[in-house]
């Protein structure tokens, strides 16, 4: 299937892929798929922003192409690079006479020596790809402006080779943790969806979907404890990933009840910031009872 026919069908497909999307997210993704528009997903840390792109690719049998953004990322890491090592080998194999000819030099800058990076690969793959541009807020302004150009027409010009255009656009999913505000121009080009923490009910469901062997009673206790942690103003509040990790940890230890001692012993699964530990240790009973 290329594209779902209804929002409900998309929700079900994602669920079959192990991802529980709420109605808002499913609707936004459905519209993005139907209109061929990029979607920007912002939200808290560890709430399933990256995962949804992976699951989308899996359930539609598309190739997942991931561009991980970071400070200082530039176009050669995003678009293409020339394979210098191979070019050098080729040059050594050429005779002086061949080297003097334009034709041999042109070949050195042909498709054979081009290393595709994610954006070029996505343009070539078109609608058989899900392009995940992950953590776009970590890249700098110039890179964002450059992305905007690529997203505008899905075409990339390699001066030595020519212009390569996507026949059909890939589904583009951008994610951001909102460590900085993105530009209006980029937002305007994209559909937007904010992912917050799931409700307790939903989070229990997510845990059980990911950890089918876990006990529901324990999952409920852990979710309540995690929600208490989220109310403590920590520098790094736990995401869904931490909830799942915590349940796994307790499972491995054979623990079925949460008490202050167990919470203290297993905190490493959920609280990963030294400065947060003090706040947390002052509230062990509250956390254990999920109050
Ligand atoms: N709705 C959900 N359905 C199923 N699994 C989920 C869901 N939300 C989160 N998860 C689980 O949480 C884990 C973390 O999700 P993910 O890495 O996608 O978060 P993120 O929002 O991209 O986090 P970060 O901001 O750190 O990049 C996933 O591996 C997945 O197992
Ligand atoms: Mg992520």
UniProtKB/TrEMBL annotation:
Domain called AAA+ ATPase: residue spans: 35-210
SUPFAM superfamilies: P-loop containing nucleoside triphosphate hydrolases
The organism of origin for this protein: Planosporangium flavigriseum
Gene3D superfamilies: P-loop containing nucleotide triphosphate hydrolases
GO molecular function terms attached to this record: ATP binding; ATP hydrolysis activity
UniProt protein name: ATPase
């Amino acid at each position: 299937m290329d594209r779902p026919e209804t929002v409900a069908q998309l929700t079900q497909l994602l669920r079959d892929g192990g991802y529980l999307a709420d109605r808002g997210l499913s609707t936004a993704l459905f519209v993005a798929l139907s209109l061929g528009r990029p979607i920007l997903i912002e939200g808290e840390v560890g709430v399933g922003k990256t995962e949804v792109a992976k699951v989308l690719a899996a359930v539609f049998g598309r190739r997942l192409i991931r561009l991980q953004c970071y400070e200082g990322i530039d176009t050669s890491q995003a678009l293409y690079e020339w394979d210098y090592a191979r070019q050098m080998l080729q040059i050594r194999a050429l005779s002086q006479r061949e080297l003097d000819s334009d034709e041999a030099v042109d070949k050195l800058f042909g498709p054979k020596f081009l290393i595709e990076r994610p954006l070029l690969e996505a343009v070539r793959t078109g609608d058989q790809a899900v392009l995940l541009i992950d953590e776009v807020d970590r890249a700098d302004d110039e890179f964002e402006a450059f992305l905007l150009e690529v997203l505008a027409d899905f075409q990339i010009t390699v001066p030595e080779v020519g212009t390569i255009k996507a026949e059909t656009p890939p589904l583009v999913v951008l994610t951001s943790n909102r460590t900085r505000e993105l530009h209006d121009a980029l937002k305007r080009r994209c559909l937007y969806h904010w992912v917050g923490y799931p409700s307790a009910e939903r989070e229990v469901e997510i845990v059980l979907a990911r950890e089918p062997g876990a006990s529901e009673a324990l999952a409920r206790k852990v979710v309540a404890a995690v929600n208490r942690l989220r109310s403590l103003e920590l520098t790094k509040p736990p995401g869904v990933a931490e909830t799942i990790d915590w349940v796994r940890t307790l499972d491995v230890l054979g623990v079925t009840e949460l008490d202050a001692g167990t919470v203290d012993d297993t905190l490493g699964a959920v609280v990963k910031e030294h400065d947060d530990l003090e706040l947390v240790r002052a509230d062990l009973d509250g956390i254990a009872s999920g109050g």
